Amino acid sequence: MENQKSQFKRNLLLILIGLYVVSVGAFVYANYASEPDLQKWWMLLLNVLIVSIPLVLVFGSIYVLVIAWREHSTLGEVNPRLAKIIHWAPRVAAIMIIFFVGLFSLDVFEMQASPLELLGGFLMHNIPALVMLALLILAWKRPAVGFVAFLIAGALFSIFFVRSIYALPNLALFVLPMLLIAGLFYADWKWLKPRPQAQSEAEG
Question: Which domain holds residue 80?
Answer without folding.
Answer: 53-194
